[in-house]
Amino acid sequence: MESHTPAKIIIENVNHPRQAKPADAAMYQAMKQAILEVLPAKSPGMTVAEMQECVRGRLPEQLYPDGAKSGWWTKAVQLDLEAKGIITREKVSPLRLHKA
User: Fold this and answer.
1) 57 — alpha (psi -120 to 50), left (phi > 0) or beta?
2) How far apart are CA 38 and CA 33, in angstroms?
């Protein structure tokens, strides 16, 4: 019997530098693509809640059935993309994001 281990990717957290964790690469890539499709290129950007709502319809059903786990993955990928300088946050409340 073969066991299939999903490919992993290392994700970072802008709020916790030097704390990288392995995560499922397919789930990550699908969420990253959805986030980059919906986030505006410049200020004022969109709130995290708006981003989470917008990405739901862009996620592959086989990875995110009925949007399952999309909230956690949206936040994890958001923090990773911020740590990598791909997206940036506005210093406002509520937090607003846009592409870097």
Assistant:
1) alpha
2) 9
Of the candidates 45, 63, 67, 40, the one whose C-alpha atom is nearest the C-alpha of residue 55 is: 67
Strand, coil or helix: what is 22? strand
| Cβ within 8 Å of residue 33, ≥6 positions away | 58
**Cβ–Cβ under 8 Å, residues 94 and 23:** no
**CA distance linking residue 85 with residue 14, whole number of Å:** 9
Place of tokens 């397919």: 26
Q: Are 83 and 24 in contact (CB under 8 A)?
A: no
Q: For 42-92, how does the pLDDT look when each residue is reduced to its tens digit (9 = 90+)?
A: 999 999 999 999 999 999 999 999 999 999 999 999 999 999 999 999 999
